[in-house]
Model the fold of this input.
Amino acid sequence: MARIAVIGAGMGAMAAAARLAVAGHRVTVYERSETFGGSVGRYAHDGFAFDTGPMLLHLPAVYRDLFVKTGKEPLERCVTMTQVDPASRHVFADGTAVSLPNASRAGVVAALDAALGGGAGSSWGAFLDRARDAWDRSRRPLLEEPLRPDWQVLARDPYPAPRQRRLLRPARQAGTVAEVGAWELADPRLAALLDGYALSYGLDPRRAPAAAALLPYMEETFGSWYVEGGIRALARAVYERCLARRVEFALGREAARVVEKDGRAAGVEFVDGTVAEAEHVVLGVRPRPGLVPGEALRTEGDGPGRGRAAEPGRFLVMLSLSGARPADAAHRTVVHPADGAAEQEAVFAGRVADRPTVTVLRPDDPTIRPDDAHEAVTLTATVAPHGTVDWTDPATRARFADTLIEAAGAVVPGVRERILHAEVRTPAETAADTGAEGGSVPGPALAGAQGAYLRPGNRTRLPGLHLAGGWSHPGGGLAHAGMSGALVAGLIVEGDGFRGSQ
Ligand SMILES: Cc1cc2nc3c(=O)[nH]c(=O)nc-3n(C[C@H](O)[C@H](O)[C@H](O)COP(=O)(O)OP(=O)(O)OC[C@H]3O[C@@H](n4cnc5c(N)ncnc54)[C@H](O)[C@@H]3O)c2cc1C
Done:
């Protein structure tokens, strides 16, 4: 039995902690705030409740596996999960709207054909087929195994883009999300759909590799799931599973640095100068010089993910509304702007977009509203991180919140008149919740682009120090961070020979 110190109580770190405790280790999670869950927070007001982080779960298998491996009670006995159907509704700038059914490729194809015409469904279907090929090729090394020392195998894009013949110029394949949209998806609304997926994960469609096709493929294949009470209920279930496995939580304990002794990690020093000794340290927060010894940052496979600009964050407007939620309202509606390129230009140049892509979330959940004569609605947009934009500026916050409410009018008629209370959260608040600089939300790791979208491996050069959570392999997002926890636990329990669960 080893003493293991876990820094941060985010989802990746807690997933690692529960698994390590089951393997017989003495695990303590040191969290600087007074609660667990990190990004997966909750805001409650006058009988309304809202998630302040992710609001849907994709790939629930990751958490099912965690619950199976760490106890008798399966995930579905700890939280109530329902599939969201339609998975999403899309309103395009020309007024066309389409509802995409949950986890049904044939249903999505039929819906797109009916709404957009012109063979849009089969065009999207052919794209999904190529995305499935990319998934089959990269799934294991990208998601299910620790990052390989020869991570360069993932530097090549697995998406099999068809060669495009070009007049008097050599044939080319789409290399970015934007090129896939322009060259392979004949309808500009399909291109907007694909761009919207990329943006929702914080990716710039103009630069993100075509391999980002995996993201809509995963959502449309494995489905979108809602957890009753909000995703915060999932974080609570993971926390409670940790407690049941005798993981200790030390809240209000901010790590200042990982202690190194005789060439290996030996514990954690806190900001108050005290030290907790440990044989292994799991860092569940963004690794930065000072927090970890400089040498350790040169993780295995030096270089993946290097050179990427600061990643965007999220802007949320949580609306407490009078009036009932219509029974036929879609859970998630994406309102696409007329000029997606202008939005991308603004977000990735560190400015506030005039017309953002706005996602409207209307969960049908009586536990998050005072009664059925009220509705809790959240509006979100991907935005530049705090710092490039000053998200603490009241005027900037109010203006952008108003932009989102304006766009939401296309989905929730009369929304302004129904507002009882509006609460705004920006990357400035995310930075405070997670400690991530600028409130950036790490996107999932992607193959391609010479490895620029990979994350540092879970094993570091400092023996005894491992990385979990969204800033490490295989990247950010609920599912991906959960996978990082499984990989870290595997590496500590089985040693460096661990090659992922079968
Ligand atoms: C607004 C928002 C929207 C999101 N939307 C989605 C979505 O739609 N889909 C999706 O899949 N994912 C989404 N995410 C991302 C997702 O929530 C995270 O990637 C996931 O929860 C994994 O988080 P993590 O394990 O990296 O830990 P984090 O959530 O980053 O938590 C890190 C924890 O470590 C603590 N900490 C930091 N520094 C220290 C220190 N020095 N000492 C001790 N403790 C410390 C922090 O207080 C925090 O509790 C969103 C995130 C945010 C913020």
About this structure: The mean pLDDT is 95. Residues 7-13, 30-33, 38-40, 53-54, 254-255, 284-285, 314, 430, 434-436, 441-442, 469-470, 476-478, 481 surround flavin-adenine dinucleotide (CB under 6 Å).
